[in-house]
Amino acid sequence: xxxxxxxxxxxxxxxxxxxxxxxxxxxxxxxxxxxxxxxxxxxxxxxxxxxxxxxxxxxxxxxxxxxxxxxxxxxxxxxxxxxxxxxxxxxxxxxxxxxxxxxxxxxxxxxxxxxxxxxxxxxxxxxxxxxxxxxxxxxxxxxxxxxxxxxxxxxxxxxxxxxxxxxxxxxxxxxxxxxxxxxxxxxxxxxxxxxxxxxxxxxxxxxxxxxxxxxxxxxxxxxxxxxxxxxxxxxxxxxxxxxxxxxxxxxxxxxxxxxxxxxxxxxxxxxxxxxxxxxxxxxxxxxxxxxxxxxxxxxxxxxxxxxxxxxxxxxxxxxxxxxxxxxxxxxxxxxxxxxxxxxxxxxxxxxxxxxxxxxxxxxxxxxxxxxxxxxxxxxxxxxxxxxxxxxxxxxxxxxxxxxxxxxxxxxxxxxxxxxxxxxxxxxxxxxxxxxxxxxxxxxxxxxxxxxxxxxxxxxxxxxxxxxxxxxxxxxxxxxxx
Length: 481
Ligand SMILES: Nc1ncnc2c1ncn2[C@@H]1O[C@H](COP(=O)(O)OP(=O)(O)O)[C@@H](O)[C@H]1O
Ligand SMILES: O=C(OP(=O)(O)O)[C@H](O)COP(=O)(O)O
Prior knowledge:
The chain is of the alpha/beta class. It has 2 domains: 207 residues, Phosphoglycerate kinase, N-terminal domain (Rossmann fold); 187 residues, Phosphoglycerate kinase, N-terminal domain (Rossmann fold), CATH 3.40.50. It has 16 helices and 20 strands. β11, α9 and β12 form a beta-alpha-beta unit. The protein is elongated, with a radius of gyration of 24 Å. The N terminus is likely disordered. The structure holds adenosine-5'-diphosphate and 1,3-bisphosphoglyceric acid.
């Protein structure tokens, strides 16, 4: 079962915006590997102080109270967790569980990756083991109205197998037939509602639709981390009609790592950011610059940084309108004392294709007609050396075009390095999207501390945004004087 351990009480400070960021100080460390283009080698270390009577939010089964310097008391608010609900709270109760079972299906309607189903099991199992009647809801894909290929029928056998019970399925998600299926649901039974996005009212967060969903149940559990950045009827709207509304174990674990471990990391803390464009990662880079000690950049975005520094980039991916931004991010890293490392060599190709001619060149040696599609071997070596010094690492975005074997070495090297570090006790967090696919491709997913089940949601959390599906949940309040 997913961990229910309490996280630091300030774990959601940034993402909720309830309080200003905690004060921090940094101590010295020298970590900068020489072959990299460096912004600075400098202070590391961290201390966080929460002042008295500020409010903080986190998701945890137990509320921690935090005493600030010189304070007499603390008020802390935490999101309620399903783990806070006992058998007495759950036995015989109808529980509306919103999960994200948006799994990939092939042309034969066969599930090709059941990660999201497996991730939802601990919460459902906890509920059925405590005698609840589970009304399970999810979306699948982005249907426009009722679309048979987006029916949830293919999910039923796998859900039943993993739960060890026969899961029933409704042909709709609201209405009289659903109501009668709910009425006949036994304690410990699970009813899967049909794709909630078959109704346009779901994505519109229509209050009447939310009310109809809510009317099926006595209480609400949100475990749909992958959809927590959407203010939809089944993720946000229902909470207005169902009390209590609490977080599931998966949602809680995602927040514990993506907010808790990132806001209060064991240091040194490194962030690795890659992917295609700097424009889609601006928020993440800016946010991580506030928290990390080392920032390693890779992927297509590095060429915008190179060009901003006056280097030739050939036909590499460049966002001309982001050159100033790249310069300002480098300056910000310097001002914050973050060691920002750009690769010093790259694998270039004469075309964007798996059978392209390729060679390794220094960052300053990209010729016209060549494009950079991966980080080079010297960069891998230096990235590894930098990562060897860390205690916490978060990774979002591949180092190169890892879908093509010729340009996968940088991404695979990072995946292998993180696996090695994880086995040594370093906290390793894979922040969703293509990095998860890369980790799975290399076969090291099992050893990472945490692999996020949400691409867009994890990105928004790392940017410090508020997730509507989280903020809407009930708070558990503890006052310590
Ligand atoms: N040097 C590069 N040039 C062009 N595309 C790249 C390069 N490096 C990585 N990419 C591409 O970036 C894509 C992933 O980018 P993005 O969606 O931003 O990351 P994520 O899904 O991890 O958030 C991958 O499809 C990869 O092929
Ligand atoms: O797959 C999902 O998001 P992701 O592709 O960002 O991980 C979620 O199920 C959310 O789906 P949506 O982006 O259609 O709202």
